Amino acid sequence: MSTPTQADVEQLQQQLNQYSYHYYVLDDPCVPDAEYDRLFRQLQVWEQQHPEWVRPDSPTQRVGEKPLGQFAQVAHSVPMLSLDNAFAAEDFTAFCKRMADRLDFAGDFAFCCEPKLDGLAVSIRYQHGLLVQAATRGDGSTGEDITSNIRTIRAIPLRLQGSDWPEVLEVRGEVFMPLAGFERMNDAARLKGDKVFANPRNAAAGSLRQLDPKVTAARPLMFYAYGLGEVQDSAGQLDAESHHQRLQQLKGWGFPVCPEIERVQGAAAVLAYYQQVAERRASLPYEIDGVVVKVDSLAQQRALGFVARAPRWAIAFKFPAQEQLTALLDVEFQV
Ligand code: NAD
Q: Hey, which family's this protein in (predicted)?
């Protein structure tokens, strides 16, 4: 539909909000992600044509959903944002151009390329090296207190290694369920005649939002760190100048970091990374739905800042739905 009415736009906003509620709050999506993404992009196009119809509760202006209230709520002092999406090489090239224009920068950006893990974003707070609180992303400003459940995940340190950490450190990353564990869990459920999970993301989200941490403890969950939230660092321990260096520092404090992460120079190298990961996607031990590309320099990140729901310095470069992937891999990218 090329010329929408205001009613069309409002209807699509409401429809997507309904889908979001099922996905984030009930952990029970009613449409495939690719369909949600298609409608979301349609809404973005319409809202660009008619900025006067953008409402503050439009899904393009917000992150996730408000928590249901079974768990205590946690306010995020540094918001947990979403990511803008690229679906084709042209979208990625446009992202690079927007950043170059904004910074008046003519060189090649260094990027940190990371698999886009299909799980659940969490924020884990350490005070004086000890894990004190963990929360889901929720609507980005308020999440759910899932401290007891996070403490059951063995990959997550309860106490940081070494002693050179900031006094307050919020580590952000993805909790996900590796495929082997997911298959094992569903096989066991089938044998008992129990309900099986639709996919590993769903299983991770359902496992983490359990009121009884013993249930979470029995689920095969894993965590990879990919960023930071609030930091109080009076001794200047956090001295990394790039995102990649920061991940190495997190590793040193005891956090697992995805081994597929690579620092690359320039847009062409990002596209090569994307293609290389897309080819290996089916053999990775966890599900991913794209790659996340972040400007590596923290100074450039700070200069670029944020828009409503996403940083300007990062993008989720999504893989097409599985059936379109084979065709895509036959095409040579041009930058
Ligand atoms: P997103 O999943 O597109 O991107 C942001 C998220 O990426 C972060 O919150 C984090 O959890 C994750 N992530 C994984 N690896 C990361 C890394 N290395 N670095 C940084 N972040 C990383 O954004 P979103 O706002 O959570 O959700 C939008 C997506 O969720 C849509 O694209 C859609 O596919 C899906 N969705 C589906 C439905 C549905 O009904 N099927 C409804 C709502 C949302």
A: Belongs to the NAD-dependent DNA ligase family. LigA subfamily.
